[in-house]
């Protein structure tokens, strides 16, 4: 029995349908999601290092994220969720495409990992009063509608003192040339139509969407070498970038601590 489609202002039905069609390819490392598999190892190191620094953990530990509750928004087939679970985190993976949830759940079971995958939206999780030590928006914000409302919902999911990590593509001519024309039409690294220029997100739009309740703690650009397909850090945020925000505790919470 198929699950009824989720309804939310931030959900773009065309985006959901697009990823539903590709759902069976999530764990094919040579298929259409191979860039995510390559990128995953790179971004996991970023998340690991920044979360350990923020929460006072030993980054060299075998399970440095043990005891932290993480939300992987738009978890897809579970590529990032599984990596974080192996680092000890208590992971909830949320998705709006039912096929992705089924595939992620089956793969986690095969891998012997306990991950809480849910067919739900950030808005519904926020309404239910859920909170997390870290909320991860990795390659998600460029696929949603009504970005300010989506970011507001995601912000409500971060506990005071917790963090949100965002990875996305900047809306610049260079990003259009490299991430869309180059990656989708010339190199064919991604299926055509994966990204739409009008939906790419500038860093200032993330800052505005999260509002005064969040402080930017880190930002870094991401680049890929087209010859060896390896990712690395750069100071330039003109194409791909990642940012980390801390949710500021309420004044009353600070006085009571």
Automatic annotation (TrEMBL):
Pathway of action: Cofactor biosynthesis; ubiquinone biosynthesis
HAMAP family: UbiG
One GO-annotated biological process of the protein: methylation
Source superkingdom: Bacteria
Task of the protein: O-methyltransferase that catalyzes the 2 O-methylation steps in the ubiquinone biosynthetic pathway.
Methyltransferase type domain sequence ranges: 71-166
Record: residues binding S-adenosyl-L-methionine: 43, 74, 138
Name assigned to this protein: Ubiquinone biosynthesis O-methyltransferase
SUPFAM superfamilies named in the record: S-adenosyl-L-methionine-dependent methyltransferases (SSF53335)
Entries under Pfam families matching the protein: Methyltransf_11 (PF08241)
Lineage, uppermost ranks: Bacteria, Pseudomonadati, Pseudomonadota, Gammaproteobacteria, Chromatiales
NCBIfam families xrefs: UbiG (TIGR01983)
Catalytic activities: a 3-(all-trans-polyprenyl)benzene-1,2-diol + S-adenosyl-L-methionine = a 2-methoxy-6-(all-trans-polyprenyl)phenol + S-adenosyl-L-homocysteine + H(+); a 3-demethylubiquinol + S-adenosyl-L-methionine = a ubiquinol + S-adenosyl-L-homocysteine + H(+)
Family membership noted in the UniProt record: Belongs to the methyltransferase superfamily. UbiG/COQ3 family.
GO molecular function: 2-polyprenyl-6-hydroxyphenol methylase activity; 3-demethylubiquinol 3-O-methyltransferase activity
UniProt KW keywords: Methyltransferase, S-adenosyl-L-methionine, Transferase, Ubiquinone biosynthesis
EC number(s) reported in the record: 2.1.1.222, 2.1.1.64
